[in-house]
Specification:
By secondary structure, the protein is an alpha/beta fold. The protein is built from 6 helices and 9 strands; from the N terminus they run βββαββαβαααβαββ. It has a domain of 59 residues.
């Protein structure tokens, strides 16, 4: 069933489809997500959750259908859309040879901001990483790496979050920190599309892939 929200104020997909090696991964996807709304994408492994997030982020081209942002069609590489999006994929997307602090400073520069030690420390502290800021990321546990990746959401505000299994490898305390961060993001009018095996406490709407 389609997931409905204001069509002119957020992200919407109509009959969205994606193929890999000529075979459909998903098709006929309809949804809309407006300000303050969360869409949780569920489904078994291989159902296309990660592929859908990568299509929404602009990393993959859809095979069919249309994606619209604030009532305008999304084109590949469109700056106005990309500057509104924060994407955290299934892999963390951080440089293992840099420290947590260096990774976040780099994220700020890429986003067009000026790195600030105070802001970086605050973002890491939100995930209990205050004592692990200087070590190369390759020395951190998988859970700690995930925390560093999610800390970018604190540091570089974006209205639309596209998150692939954000709770992977997080302990209960870190998961609670993420839930609080997501709640705040939605409360101030942000939007989120989250692929997950584990339902988020923030609730929201659901889109199930794979029948």
């Amino acid at each position: 069933m389609p997931v409905e929200a204001p069509a002119d104020s957020g992200l919407s997909a109509r009959q969205l489809g994606f193929c890999r090696a000529g075979r459909p991964v998903f098709d006929g996807i309809d949804f809309t997500v407006g300000p303050g709304e969360l869409l949780q994408v569920t489904g078994a492994n291989g159902s296309g959750k990660t592929s859908l997030l990568r299509v929404l982020s602009g990393l993959l081209e859809p095979a069919a259908g249309e994606l619209r942002w604030r009532a305008r069609p999304v084109r590949a590489g469109e700056p106005g859309y990309l500057q509104s999006v924060a994407y955290v994929g299934h892999t963390d997307g951080i440089d293992p040879d840099l420290s947590a602090e260096q990774n976040l400073a780099f994220a700020m520069r890429v986003a067009g901001g000026t790195p600030s030690r105070a802001l970086v420390d605050r973002a890491l502290d939100a995930y209990g990483m205050a004592l692990a800021t200087a070590a190369p990321v390759r020395r951190l546990s998988q859970g700690q790496r995930r925390r560093v990746a999610l800390a970018r959401l604190v540091l570089v505000p974006r209205v639309l979050w596209l998150l692939d299994e954000p709770l992977t490898s997080l302990d209960d305390q870190a998961a609670d920190s993420f839930q609080a961060q997501l709640d705040t993001h939605l409360r101030v009018g942000g939007m989120a599309v989250v692929a997950t095996h584990r339902a988020l406490a923030a609730g929201g709407r659901f889109l199930h892939l794979g029948g």
